[in-house]
Every structure is written in C-alpha cells, then in structure tokens.
User: What shape does this take?
Amino acid sequence: MGRKRRGRDTLERCANCGRTVPRDKAVEDIKRVRYDTDLKGDDNVVHTEFRTVHYCISCAKHGRVFEKKKREARRRKEREMYG
Assistant: This one.
C-alpha cells in the first residue's frame, strides 16, 4: 500500500491541468522562476525564485517528470560505480 492511512489528506491543484489531487498522491517538482527588467546596462535587476509545483500522475508522466528523476538516479549510480 503506497498511501498512508491518515484520514482525509489535504488537496493540491495540478499546475498543468487543474485537477484536484490528494497531497500524498501528487508529484512534487521544484521549478526555477526568473524575473528580470531587461534593461541593458547597470540598472538591470534579476530575481530568481524556486517554487514547488504539484502535478497529477497523468500530467507528470506526460511531462516526463518521472523520466527526469530516473535519469538523475541513473547518473548518480554511474558516478558511484566509476567515481
């Protein structure tokens, strides 16, 4: 059983399709958002912010969020073997 029996869990909205998903079933991904003023010169201001977004299972699979995690795990395993 993947889901823990804690009663009613809080609901999250999918960032892609807007579907309501229980928090323990939603897939979390950290997204980097960058704001800048697009001024050429010394007056340019750049702000970078990290946001946690939640996806439903189908959007996470379609957007290859799972594939990214698999790829990162494979790279980590290769570094441990040869490094």
User: Anything to note?
Assistant: Residues 65-82 form the longest helix (18 residues). The chain has a mean pLDDT of 85. Residues 11-82 form one domain.
